[in-house]
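The records we work with from here on pair a chain with its fold. The integers have meaning only within a learned vocabulary of local backbone shapes. A complete example follows; check for yourself that the lines match position by position.

:::
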Amino acid sequence: MKWLLILMMAFATAASAADVSGTWKGVAEGPQGRIERTFMFKQDGAKLTGETTSDFTGKSIISDGKVDGDNISFNITANIQGDEMKLSYKGKVAGNEIKLKVETADGSFSVDYVAKKVN
């Protein structure tokens, strides 16, 4: 009976984890104005892969992506005016919306995105 309870709890935890696979459109307000970014997520259990695109930085590949319950995190390397810069994203999923905070490795820049699921 004890093992059955443990197994049921494990399945309940897995079932409650967010599934972020698909395309999401994000918007942030930066120092230069509105920033739009598209996220194409592929989730396999707790592993998150995919890519992002924006007019400002072009296409970037997602690395070190993780999904833990409703929390997600990943990194990209973006090309900003000819310089490559690592950006770290952390966020929380709530239904068809993800609130993400992105910041540079040195903490000199951060911005908050709100992304909505497109498909």
User: Anything to note?
Assistant: Residues 3-8, 10-15 have pLDDT under 50 and may be disordered. Residues 21 and 42 are 5 Å apart (CA to CA).
